[in-house]
Amino acid sequence: MDFMxxxxxxxxxxxxxxxxxxxxxxxxxxxxxxxxxxxNV
Length: 41
Hints:
By secondary structure, the chain is an all-alpha fold. It has one domain. Helices cover 80% and strands 0% of the residues. The protein has helices spanning 2-22, 29-40. The longest helix has 21 residues, at 2-22. It is flat and about 35 Å long. Keywords: Membrane, Transmembrane, Transmembrane helix. The chain crosses the membrane at residues 6-23.
């Protein structure tokens, strides 16, 4: 279960990195914050 959680976090940051590279503005920091809140719960 811990491995799944770590892999989810890792995938999320890979996704953020890809967004940064391609300069996509479709994802707002509010959506990122909401996603982090879901992970914290």
